[in-house]
Specification:
The chain has a domain at 116-253 and 310-366. It is 24% helix and 12% strand. The protein has 14 helices and 17 strands. The chain is globular and about 65 Å long. Residues 78-90 have a biased composition (Polar residues). InterPro entries: Cyt_c-like_dom (IPR009056), Cyt_c-like_dom_sf (IPR036909), Cytochrome_c_Peroxidase/MauG (IPR051395), DHOR (IPR010538). Residues 379-510 form the Cytochrome c domain. Residues 46-90 are annotated as: Disordered.
């Protein structure tokens, strides 16, 4: 039975958060009691991305040259049957791997986690699925959402099966997409700020607070140079507050896979893989997104533009921008100085999400497993892996990484994993230039998104790809690539149809 739905042993509760959770249902009594008593033992070991823990000797974590015979740059073998290579390519998340043929594959707990690491997992799950209410309503410690927000639960955007549908009929949009606002100089909109919130609460007098506006989409036709795509149109609630020349960038919610494993990749390895000046003349110039945190600079790892340096900060940022919840990381409401209603609305505490709750959510996401890679035909899988390397996909979507040490979750230490990312920023060309600079990431730069689990996502006919979901298929996503990936795209386009299908079959298996 999956631990996600299994009760933990019973013990005496030791915090107000537990008392609040226990009032939800009697079932949660058995799940949560020992959990919060263990939280007091320590938070997730948020290894600073700026300082590696105990990495291997720093080296460029390049992909295996070939999953068959090790020929130079993935020379394609006839049989793809090398046993050692097969073993190297079939695992996915090391000790965090689970079977893929399971329901809710993206919300399963890592098997064999020691009991002393489970303190935050069950309460973290409750917080993850909880529908938060406005301040003063509903359950204590689960209130304070808004006054402006995009979703009132993590599960409104993140799906256990992959990605939630984004585009509805007649230009309408579902909740699993949000919109970043800005320009190429990195300036947010003076009224709306850096993110548009399309939902709002009703205040204590019964008056509905006005939302910021409504976003709709129109499909764009394919041209000789670009595939079919999406364009967004914004209708402000207050006609006196137009967007002007502020750019709109849609951001869909990705699948949650191996988040803590990415957090554990040593900083030295990420830095070693960067080549901002293209010193090796291979056309790839990935660079680290150095993010200022106080007086330090740390490596950005999370978010479409790698703006968040750790999983904990990623979670706090989502709570702030998407749900309107304050934390010790982001204490201010997600409102600009020109939105006084936000600053006078009631709040659910100061902060609204306690450190223990934020740590519990981070523990839960740390414990999420990685679905194994899937193949019914190992020979075809290996040939597709060769093509993945030969076309140049692996130059950015680095197949193999190795984690450093984790004090809090030692099971995840020194694990060989296959996330298919270098966590670097890359110039993706004019077609994917969204016009929005975020921190030190230019408008045309994007973090290489991890591809593990992408094949499970692609099973859903409604699944969308790329940062704004403009691509309805993996092929369309590839064809939108430009900039540093232009040559790779051209090599893909030049493949015979049979080899294209082999490469796509490989992607559907990882």
């Amino acid at each position: 039975m999956s631990l996600l739905f299994s009760p933990l042993p019973r013990s005496t509760p030791q915090s107000p958060l537990l008392a609040a959770i226990l009032r939800m249902t009697l079932l949660n009594l058995s799940i949560l009691t020992i959990a919060l008593s263990l939280i007091a033992c320590g938070n997730s070991d948020d290894n600073s991305p700026g300082v590696p823990s105990t990495p291997d000797t720093p080296s460029n974590p390049t992909p295996p040259t070939s999953p068959d015979t090790g020929e130079n740059h993935g020379g394609e073998s006839d049989n793809g049957s090398n046993d050692t290579a097969d073993t190297n390519w079939l695992p996915t998340g090391g000790a965090a791997t689970i079977a893929a043929d399971i329901t809710r594959p993206f919300l399963q707990i890592i098997p064999n986690l020691p009991s002393n690491t489970l303190g935050g997992v069950s309460p973290g799950r409750e917080l993850f699925i909880t529908h938060w209410t406005p301040a003063g309503e509903g359950r204590v410690l689960f209130d304070g959402v808004g006054p402006l927000f995009n979703a009132n639960a993590c599960t409104q955007c993140h799906s256990a099966e992959g990605r939630k549908p984004v585009y509805a009929a007649n230009g309408e949009l579902n909740d699993a997409i949000l919109f970043r606002l800005g320009n190429k100089q990195g300036l947010a909109h003076g009224y709306y700020g850096e993110q548009m919130q399309h939902q709002s609460i009703t205040d204590s007098t019964g008056v509905k607070i006005a939302t910021e506006g409504k976003m709709q989409y129109v499909n764009t036709a394919a041209t000789d140079n670009t595939p079919a795509g999406i364009r967004f149109n914004f209708t402000p609630t207050d006609a006196n507050q137009p967007l002007g020349d502020t750019a709109i960038s849609g951001r869909i919610s990705p699948q949650l896979v191996g988040m803590w494993l990415l957090n554990l990749i040593p900083a030295a390895n990420i830095i070693a893989a960067s080549d901002p000046d293209d010193s090796n003349n291979d056309g790839i110039s990935g660079r680290v997104h150095w993010v200022n945190e106080g007086r330090e600079q740390k490596i950005g790892r999370f978010g479409w533009k790698a703006i968040n340096t750790s999983l904990r900060i990623q979670n706090a940022n989502a709570m702030s921008q998407d749900m309107g919840l304050t934390t010790s990381v982001f204490m201010e409401p997600n409102c600009t100085v020109n939105q006084p209603i936000c600053w006078t609305a009631a709040n659910g505490g100061n902060p609204e999400v306690s450190d223990s709750s934020l740590d519990a959510v981070t523990d839960f996401m740390t414990a999420l497993a990685v679905p194994e890679r899937r193949t019914g035909d190992l020979q075809t899988f290996n040939k597709g892996a060769n093509l993945f390397a030969q076309t140049g996909c692996a130059s950015c979507h680095t197949p193999k990484q190795k984690t450093g040490d984790s004090i809090r979750f030692p099971l995840l230490s020194q694990q060989t994993i296959y996330p298919y990312t270098d966590l670097l920023l890359h110039d993706m060309g004019a077609g994917l230039d969204d016009g929005v600079k975020e921190k030190n990431a230019e408008s045309f730069e994007w973090r290489t998104p991890p591809l593990w689990g992408i094949g499970i996502v692609a099973r859903d006919a409604q699944a969308r790809f790329l940062h704004d979901g403009r691509a309805s298929t993996l092929t369309e996503a590839i064809l939108w690539h430009g900039g540093e990936a232009e040559a790779t795209k051209l090599r893909f386009k030049q493949l015979p149809s049979e080899k294209k299908e082999t490469l796509l079959t490989f992607l559907q298996g990882i």
